[in-house]
Amino acid sequence: MSRIRNSRTRLVTVAASVALAAFSLTACQDGTGLADEGASKESAPTAPAGDNTNGSKESTSGSSDGGSSANGSSGSGSSGSGSSGGDGKQNTGGSQPNADAPDQQAPDASGKTVTCEGSVTKTVATPLSRPLNHLLLTVTNTGKNRCFLYGYPAVQFGEAQSVPPVIEDTQPQAVVTLEPGQSGYAAVSLSAGDGSGKNGHTEKSLGVYFQGRSGSESTGKGANPPLPAKGIYIDDSLKVTYWQSTMDLAINW
Questions:
Q1: Residues 149, 210: contact at Cβ < 8 Å?
Q2: Which residues on adjacent β-strands are paired with residue 150?
Q3: Where are the domains positioned within the chain?
Q4: What is the pTM of this model?
Q5: Whether the Cβ atoms of residue 189 and residue 237 lie closer than 8 Å to each other
Q6: Tens of pLDDT along the chain (253 residues)?
């Protein structure tokens, strides 16, 4: 009898164990809180490293590599209108001057060009020992504007009624232009060095007159540079050069 009871007892125990196991399996499958909490943590999905769905991480790195964040904003962290310099100041696109560009100069009064004549120049007459029997005329621009020295000087010694001719071989390739403070030059051949000239005489006054663009007549105010006290000897061989940009060009003929 005791053996039968023991057998029943074992059967009940086994049946109870099987029922408990079945109950535990059913609890795990229907998602109740009886499952192991460690297993639940391991099965929870995690985002891969560097994958940020709201774009905050990519936007931060985009400030250095120019990438775009997941929410569509520029990787530079701004609206794209400029970039930030090393001093923390923002440089707006196209608004800053070019550092390599040369500085622009404001126009000055010397941009206007006038005709050189007595009111804007100073004329000096200097006798030369070489070439022999020559007089050097130096005209300096004393005005505020550049000026043109057209043609050649119309010189008048004393009460002469005509002006001496020009030496055609001395005509320059371009009109002489004088900036304020610059000088132009012309030479006057006073008399024949071999004495072949006629009607030689001494004069103590000189008038210098300036040609206009057309070259057919004088323009503006003339000049009266002083001559040596003893005067200047001239004869019928008197002639002049065209205006030149240097003294050497004026006397080298």
A1: yes
A2: 211
A3: 114-251
A4: 0.57
A5: yes
A6: 444 444 444 544 444 444 444 444 444 444 444 343 444 344 434 444 444 444 433 333 333 344 444 344 444 444 444 444 444 444 444 333 333 333 333 334 446 899 999 999 999 999 998 889 999 999 999 999 999 999 999 999 999 988 999 999 999 999 999 999 999 999 999 999 888 889 999 999 999 999 999 887 889 999 999 999 999 999 999 999 999 999 999 998 7
